[in-house]
Design goal:
- The complex is a heterodimer of chains A (248) and B (284).
- Chain A has 248 residues and is an alpha/beta fold.
- Chain A folds into 2 domains: 173 residues, P-loop containing nucleotide triphosphate hydrolases (Rossmann fold, 3-Layer(aba) Sandwich); 66 residues, no CATH class.
- Chain A has 11 helices and 10 strands.
- The two termini of chain A are 30 Å apart.
- Chain B is an all-alpha fold and 284 residues long.
- Chain B has 11 helices and 2 strands; from the N terminus they run H-H-H-H-E-E-H-H-H-H-H-H-H.
- The N and C termini of chain B lie far apart (38 Å).
- The longest helix of chain B is centred in the N-terminal third of the chain and has 29 residues.
- The chains are: A alpha/beta (248), B mainly alpha (284).
Chain lengths: 248, 284
Amino acid sequence: MTNPTEKDEVLLSVEDLEVSYGPFKVLMGVSLVVKKGEVVAVVGANGAGKSTLLNTIAGLLPIRRGKIIFEGKEITRAPAYARVHMGIALVPEGRRIFPELNVLENLLLGSYPKHARDDSKENLRRVFDLFPILEKRQKQSAKTLSGGEQQMLAIGRALMSKPKLLLLDEMSLGLAPLVVDSLYAAIEKIRLEGTTILFVEQNVRKSLSHSDRGYLMKGGKIALCGPSRDLLRERSIRQAYFGISEGK
Amino acid sequence: MELGTAFVMGILLGGLYGLVALGLSLIFGVVREMNLAHGDFVVLGSYFAYTIVTACGIDPILSLALGVPVFLVIGYVLQRFLLNYACRISHDTVLLVTFGISVVLQNVFHITWGPLSRNLTTPYTLSGLAFGRFHIPLPYLLDFLAAALFMTALYLFLKHTYLGRAIRAVAQEPTAAQLVGVNVERVHAITFGIATALCAVAGVFLGMTFSFTPSTGPAFLIMAFGVVVLGGLGSIVGTLIAGILFGLVQTLSGHFFGVVTQTLASYVMALVVLSIFPKGLFGK
């Protein structure tokens, strides 16, 4: 899939991935590559398998067939917690912050991996610079935050582990447009600091205009892929997703 | 017993109950398992101290220097290599396995130490303190101090260390805990180890306060279960307060209605409180 000269640039490669929930196949032979420093979007309708793909890369779901390779090492069978130590951090759908812990404790848990503990002060500073509201709320218990703030906390927590690859699952789901804009602005800053990002969204136009490359998923398969600006011009995408409805 | 003394003794006894229940509360809150052998681990703690005290002649409290690390390892190994597997099958399996451990332990107690009741006596266990009209047996006071000390230590550990925060994270959101790099099964094993070490502590103070036999465990399991449910899952303060309520109701009902009503009264109290606070006093 990649030629030898590019090989050292590849951070993550997913090959022929097959995942099922019981008898239902959700991913059917998905292959995808993320290079160092890229921002890659996976778009598609509800139920296309986008979240399943991210959860599988993070190690939360067992794989039927296929391979996941990260930094040249196969991690297909590595448990989820071990992948965090390798440098993969997922911001899951629904945020899954620790509700009874305060904001600061949530963030410090993000630096649980040993390699991140020494730099936790410095990373905390970075997260607070990125999301100043979290610094103001640091002693507040996480469940008292608004939806947007909780999403910022979830992203901040993931950044505390100094990930090489940040996975974002539906981060704008259910949030007001202004909040979504500020999250995308934050993503832009995170990428400028050198973190590679793979994210999943239902909003096709927005996610393609904030990424380098895109994959379009349909029914558990990759239907299209390419540079985001090309995909934005693609006729089939324009008809299916920018037409009357953006859903199915 | 005079009323004031009964009142003070009830509160102090509550410390012992809280201490006995603390490990169970931790396992319940974090691992979400019911350890039916909990009472027997407490009694194992008593026998362990008894053996060291008779062999070396040292103070039972000092024996904890060995008891705590040994029990920590026992608990860790048990969860890591047995209960984690049972957990993956179902919660019923955990109940069955821990019930089995309970039966095995009681028989081991019988074979090793015989059926007679024992206690951990030292020169000071029979002494008491007189505060004006109150006369307080020293072990009751030690029970309460130990409960306060170990609960505070556990609280600080859970609040201020990476491992402690990881334990709380696992209790609240196991999936998210994995996503920040926490090995959930390992944290379960460490938690079970800590809970078992607390059984060693509770066993020493139990043995200094009451006598124990090979079949004492289940009674303390039931009491601890009541304390945990009453206090609210996973709340350390709740465990202490509920322990004190149990202690108070026992000594006061003993004072007013006689010893036979003690157990009945404490569970009637638990039912009444739970009907008002279904999640326990400090439950979330």
